[in-house]
Amino acid sequence: MKDIFGMALQDYQGGRYSEDITTSSSLDEEDCIPLPYLFRSYGDMPKLEQRALELCRGEVLDIGAGAGSHSLYLQGKGLKVTALDTSAGAIATCSKRGVEETVHSALLDYRGRTFDTLLMLMNGIGIVGRLSHMHDYLLHFKTLLKPGGQILLDSSDIIYMFEEDDDGGVWVPNTGAYYGEVEFTMAYKGQKSDSFFWLYVDYRTLSNAAMAVGLQCELVQEGKHYDYLARLWCA
């Protein structure tokens, strides 16, 4: 898969910023990912992200670290942080920005170490892709946790994106799949990624999935637009 994301991050870090990443999705929407936003400081982060960072403790695995903004903040607070990403360009960017420990790996391939906090921000749980994969990912998360460890993640319930009828019901296409499974492609400077699925999961569904693998789940904070921060830990 072309590392569109990593290419864009390295361009921005190297002073070659001229455009943003464009995304297309199965929801028939085009959008963009502004590169400067990925390099933001703590003060420019949403309240949910700020709250998650304040709850981090001990050794932290920043999953889907991107440009490393969360890792750098935690590192500055004196926490030991490992930034993990599947994008080689993202990991190179993290290193250049000063993240001390990085890992270039797919999440399910990463094993052998345990952490006090697994951090998954900017809808980091989306990496699961499809709801049917959630069980395996949650079990893997448990193998990465120290005793008393926690998982902090944010996501959104995208039910608001579907049409509502006069009675308040929502018309969700009957595709046989969970409505939060969204297929994306990314484009940048004339190059286009392969398509991939990204999961947006409502809190109730997340909580039920966590319970099924022996994880407790707490709704820490809700955002202004169907988004939320959750904390999971071993029962």
UniProtKB/TrEMBL annotation:
GO terms for biological process: methylation. Gene3D superfamilies: Vaccinia Virus protein VP39 (3.40.50.150). It holds the Pfam family Methyltransf_23. Keywords: Methyltransferase, Transferase. It comes from the Bacteria. GO terms for molecular function: methyltransferase activity. SUPFAM superfamilies: S-adenosyl-L-methionine-dependent methyltransferases. This is Methyltransferase domain-containing protein. It comes from Pseudozobellia thermophila. The lineage of its organism: Bacteria, Pseudomonadati, Bacteroidota, Flavobacteriia, Flavobacteriales.
